[in-house]
Amino acid sequence: THEAKSWGKIKQNAKAVTVVGDATILFPILVGGLKQKKLL
């Protein structure tokens, strides 16, 4: 997240997290969460 902030990809005061895991597990969870919040 430090690099993303330094390159201006996210705001300096943004709340950011780093998630380490396998995409085949995490991607469906992420999509499901976005659908539940009606962001997709």
List strands and helices in order, with pairings.
Elements: H1 2-6, H2 23-36
Q: What can you tell me about this protein's structure?
A:
The chain has one domain (2-36). It has helices at 2-6, 23-36. It contains 2 helices and no strands. The longest helix has 14 residues, at 23-36. With 40 residues, the chain is mostly helical.
Keyphrases for this structure?
about 50% helix; about 40 residues; mainly alpha
Mean pLDDT value: 90
Structural class by helix and strand composition = mainly alpha
* Biggest pleated sheet: none
Order of helices and strands: HH
The total of beta strands comes to: 0
Total of domains:
1
SS field, number of helical segments: 2
Low-confidence stretches: none
In short:
By secondary structure, the protein is mostly helical. Helix content is 48%, strand content 0%.
